[in-house]
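Let's study my pick:
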Amino acid sequence: MQLIKSQFPVHDPLPIWIYVLIFLVLVMLFFLGYSSMLSFPRPIQKIDELRYSDRFISERAYDHIAYLADEIGYRVAGTPNNEILAVNFINEQIQEIIANKNDDIEIEYENNVYDGHFLRQSKMYEVINLYRGVQNIVVKLKARNVSESDEKNYILLNSHFDTVPMSPGAGDDGTMVGVMLELLRLFSMKPPLRHPLIFLFNGLEESGLQASHAFIVNHRWMEKVNVLINLEVVGPGGKELMFQTTAEHSWLMNIYHHNVPHSFATTVAEEIYQNGLIPSDTDFTNFRKFAPHVAAYDFAHAYNAYAYHTKNDAMSTISKGSLQHTGDNVVALIKGLDSSSEIDAMRTRNDLEEFDKVVFYDFLGLFLIFYSQLTSTILNSVLFAVLTCIVAWCVYHFKHTQGMKFRSGILEFIIALFIQVLGLLIGAGVAMFIAFLLDVCGRSMSWYSNQWLIFGIYFCPFFFCNAFIPYLYIKWREKSPVSDSYYVQLAIHAHCTILSIGLAVLTGLGIRSSFILAISTMFYFGTTLLNVIFDFVNKGNKWLYLHCLGQILPSIFYFYMGSMMYVLLIPINARAYDGADKNPEYMVAGITCLIALLGTGFYAPILNMFKHRKYLLGMFLVIFVVFLIIAMTPVGFPYREKESEQRYTIWHTKREFYRHDGEIRKADSGYYIYTYDRHGSTPVKDIVPLMKKAVKIDDECNTEMLCGMPFYNVHYSGNAFYNEWIPSEPPLLPSDPNRPYLRLQEGKSIARNRREYTFVLAGTDHMSVVISPLKGAKIINWSFTETMSKYSKLWNNREVYYINYVHGVDSNNMKPYEFTFVVETDENFGLQYSFEIALVAHYIHKDETLTTQFKDFIKSFPKWTNVQHWTSLYLSYEY
């Protein structure tokens, strides 16, 4: 290739309308990426069943969900709705399916009731789960005349039919119960599969994943289960996201890839979830821990997470197209698993000395790309090498065509790289400063109901800085013989260098989501290579058109991924257990900067090739100012009725604190107001009259175990210092002998400095026991589990153990529960008691315990709030 030496071509600036066109195309690409998340197959109606006898009928699934959500309603463990009505409904549907099944199919089903316990571990807490009377409905579908001894390699589908308090649960998890019932009907009408199908409708997930544990450790069919398909909902509607698989079974992705017609899966979601950024858990966790031989998929609907665990999780949020999407995919996945050889050649974790995780992502739901992490490392390393080579060649070419010395050419590139880094850092810094200011001014979360505000508040400032810093540099060196076109090319090469360094770092850290940096740089390499081959870099602005065309597909993908991240993460800001302590603006600003960097980073430098570019830059500033003003108006108020409500949980609580001598040291009643987001109760202070009497509980948090408050589970302690208490009349709780109790049955010395305590617990269907040894004392053994667990959390430098107790069927006739533990004290321990123990009893579904004043208080909250509420009893003792 002959290089043109010592040429200083001056390229005329491009007309401004071309950049406006490019910008409009980018906007169109964003909406294309977003809308692809909501594209569904045509739902099949019951009237079409004769034509589609072998297809999933979404209307049937919809009808099942409607009955669960509308006719039965909320289904909390221990309530008749869950333990009788929901169980009866599912049984009736199973019996109807059996009556109409294919003669070559055999169906067995069982209703199981279990008691048990296990240690539930998460990144933040460890909790002992005790359960009694937990119900499961288990169905096995297989070929007729095959004995159970000859059966092997079951495929298990799991969903749960219980809900959180006061939520109809149309989405979580009524949607997947409806889907599974329709899947059961469909496969009962087809010729038998090679492998039996197990359908587990579990009756207790919401209070700690108890029912799945009960099935795993007790049911005889479990030992033959080889594959799990877990079906969950964290936001009704939308597509089911395949967000994690068991890492040691990479063949699962191969089955998914080759069989599922509507792919929706990404490693990014898997790594976000597994790093604890989403405050949810699924039954997948129990299968991974207690059944490590099982290969497992975890699917979840996650579109409208605003409705998750609220009264708005109703039929209005359910889309038949969404159900059809899920049904078609799961049917195809089951068929693919059934015909695979891998399911018959399963190996346990103990047999696997090494395994390789996979990188996976779909493109607009059209197809799936996946490969092993090792392959990813190799590909990323090769890409980094070729990017380095082509950038080096382009810098050399630039130096040669401009007649520069080697050092001058390198210096020009280093300056361009510095300018690009500076622009990115200033852009990100400005975005974070805006996030800080909005929070300080009490205007955070303006985007919560209006996500379009993010464009003006964060995208525009970041993009402005990313383009303005190079603009200043070019303006400063106006008289340089190097044309703007050449400098812009250097800036683009510098941007690629930044991304390629990021790619190398993330790959080295073992972060599989590094693939997102590979996509745009790979296309950059392709277009740059073509520009070099055809010498477009020296032919005016021709290189620009090929460069822009080459970034269209990456931009669509990044906007698609960005939309997915907004959908997943924005609603979390209003339901986080530590939401009051964190400024959510930082997260949204960070995501937006990343989307802008990836989706528009290769476009920002080219702004400096256009006429009137200062007006283009000014346009972004004007948009920012306009959107910031809008955010300060009522339009920027975060919450909307039925769409995006602010969450509260309020417990009308009676508390009694007993000293070691049996005397009451404190007794009171009040409303404990638990808030989830950054605003706390501020938005309702001037609307709800009684809120003017609310006081912070900081003092009690510093003196009492877990603030002395009736937390529904230990996660609620995360926001404790930001919550409030309103003194009130006592709730209408039952008195002796029906009052819950925690009684010391026996306390005896078993060795020097060791005492064994036996307690008896009885009360409501949802209770907690909290134990905290004093300094100088520790619990060394107990009856809850075979071995001692780590403490649930440290509170005021003391270990706190949290025990969660739930009773399901026949909860009105529950028997007392007895437990023991051993406390060891130091030699010089001189206090009169060695530990505190508290009982928290919740009356979740006992309306007769609600006072008129409490009902009026709840009614006084505005319509844009979602208020979970019930009564509770808190009893604390010293021993």
Notes: The longest helix spans residues 406-440.
